[in-house]
Amino acid sequence: MTKHDINGNTKSTILITGGSGLVGQAIKSYTDANAKEGETWIFLSSKDGDLRDRKETDAIFEKYKPTHVIHLAAKVGGLFANLKYKVEFYRENTLINDNIMENCRIHKVTKLVSMLSTCIFPDKTSYPIDETMLHNGPPHPSNEGYAYAKRLIDTMNRAYAEEYGCNFTAIIPTNIYGPHDNFSIQNGHVIPGLIHKCYMAKKNNTPFTIWGSGTPLRQFIYSGDLAELTVWVMREYHSPDPITLSVDEAAEVPIKDVAYAVAKAMKFEGEVVFDTEKADGQFKKTACNKKLRGLRSDYKFTSMEEGVQKAVDWFVENYDTARK
Known about the structure:
This protein is an alpha/beta fold and about 325 residues long. The protein contains 10 helices and 13 strands. β5 (about 110-115), α5 and β6 (about 170-175) form a beta-alpha-beta unit.
């Protein structure tokens, strides 16, 4: 559905679900700095309505009448929660996704971009993984409820395109970090967890202890880069097949390097210790960004040092209110 103003210029209303989180806030920062005439951006949080509820979701679409939707909202959790509540992770995510997709169809939304994750790929696979391998085997048993709900987005993007001509697609980012993250040491992801841990070590004059040997390799994408690429996907990438948004394979880094980057950004001068009694987890989960590079060969990603510095500065400045 295309809207126009009184002069016939195209008007777009872009609705962001999960707009208060890490990626939603990064998109807000990016679009505030790169405003495009005729675009209105609406950032939803859970306060705006329960997306698991069909009537509440219908009301949101009636209220804002979006032309575009970037769907980031999901029920997420750490390893323990995923193991214990597989039914809830499957059902709640499936309800959210179905409510969003059906409303996009009914309201003739021009474009829907949903966010998937590399953790929903097959457990037993070869590396690097690419978009074509998503359904090549079962996900890791620990998060199968969440993973199957998310995989169905990809299935339904193609189904809606075939049956109704809808322009729905999905992005698959690698490990995201940046301002507005969840910096919980117990339940947060690698970089925000290390940032919080290093902050406490500096404050308490204790060693900065990293769980594991620090040798596993990971690809990290700064939230500002992911925001810019997500907006590009919304405007320019028109295929139901998903696209991996990741740094290059050559930019994969050992956790050890990340820990030292955090210590440097935090100006931590104490002892850095690797607790090898703790498990390392999977050695590598390399993702291939060949499809992205075929379309954006020129894109320059934020370096690990610069991204970590920005995340550390934000956390220190917002320590009292940051999620942790």
